[in-house]
Specification:
By secondary structure, the protein is mainly α. It folds into 2 domains: about 110 residues, no CATH class; about 100 residues, no CATH class. The chain contains 10 helices and no strands. The longest helix is centred in the C-terminal third of the chain and has 26 residues. It is elongated, with a radius of gyration of 21 Å. The two termini are about 40 Å apart. About 5% of the residues have low confidence.
C-alpha cells in the first residue's frame, strides 16, 4: 500500500542518513535497477519477486513519472494522460483491486509506452516534431474530430498552429487580453479554414491555448524558432 511504501521509505532514508550512506531504493527493494530500454520478462519476474514489493512499485512509479515528464516536455495533454494513468494504477493498488505483481506488470507496460513516446511523431508523413505533436494531441483529443478529418489533416493543422505561435506569441501575451483574444481568433480561423468540426472548436481552442502557454516561455526566452527536432 502507498502508506506502507511511505513508512518503508522513511525508515530507509533515516537509516541511510544516520550512517552517511546514499539510499539506493532499487537495492533496498531487492530488484534490478529499471531501464526503459530493457523491460524484459526476466526483469518483470525479478521485480515481482523483490523482497520489498512495495518499494519495487515505488521505484517503478518514480521512474515512469520522471521519464514521462522528460519525454512529454511542453506537451500538457500527454503529461496529463500519463499522470492520470499512474494515479489510477496506484489508486487501484491502494484499494486492493490489484496485487503487487499485477500493479508491477501494469507499471512495466506503461513504462514501455513512455519509452517509445519520443517516436510517436515519426508515424506521420512528414514526421511531426515535438511541438507539432503537442498541437496534434490538442486537436486530436476529440475522437469524432479524428474520425471526421483523419490523422493526416489534423497533423497539417498542427503544423499550421506552430506557425501561428511563431508569428503571434509575444512577451506580454499572457497578461494582455487583447493579444490573447487575437490569438484565439487566429486559432479559430485556422480551424474553420481546415474544416474542423464547429461543435468541437471551443474545446480544441482551449487545449491549443494551454499548449501555447506551456511552450511560450521557451520560445520567448530563446527568441529562436521552435524545435525542428
Amino acid at each position: 500500500m502507498p502508506e506502507e511504501i511511505q513508512r518503508l521509505l522513511g525508515e530507509l532514508i533515516a537509516s541511510a542518513t544516520s550512517s552517511g550512506e546514499v539510499l539506493d531504493i532499487y537495492e533496498a527493494a531487492g530488484m534490478p535497477k529499471p531501464s526503459l530500454d530493457d523491460l524484459t520478462p526476466e526483469f518483470i519476474a525479478k521485480t515481482q519477486q523483490a523482497r520489498n514489493p512495495q518499494l519495487a512499485i515505488e521505484a517503478l512509479r518514480k521512474l515512469i513519472a520522471d521519464e514521462s515528464a522528460s519525454s512529454t516536455r511542453n506537451n500538457v495533454i500527454r503529461q496529463r494522460a500519463f499522470s492520470e494513468r499512474i494515479s489510477e494504477l496506484m489508486k487501484k493498488y491502494t484499494n486492493q483491486q490489484l496485487t503487487s505483481a499485477e500493479v508491477i506488470a501494469e507499471l512495466v507496460e506503461l513504462a514501455r509506452e513512455v519509452a517509445v513516446e519520443g517516436q510517436r511523431g515519426t508515424q506521420f508523413t512528414p514526421p511531426l516534431n515535438s511541438d507539432e505533436l503537442a498541437f496534434y494531441d490538442a486537436v486530436a483529443q476529440n475522437e469524432s474530430a479524428v474520425e471526421v478529418q483523419g490523422e493526416g489533416k489534423l497533423a497539417e493543422i498542427a503544423r499550421q498552429l506552430v506557425g501561428v505561435m511563431r508569428r503571434d506569441v509575444r512577451t506580454d501575451w499572457t497578461v494582455r487580453d487583447d493579444v490573447r483574444a487575437k490569438l484565439r481568433a487566429s486559432i479559430k480561423r485556422l480551424l474553420v479554414i481546415n474544416g474542423y468540426p464547429p461543435d468541437k472548436q471551443p474545446d480544441a481552442i482551449k487545449l491549443v491555448m494551454e499548449q501555447m502557454e506551456s511552450m511560450a516561455p521557451r520560445l520567448i526566452s530563446s527568441r529562436v524558432p521552435l524545435s525542428r527536432s
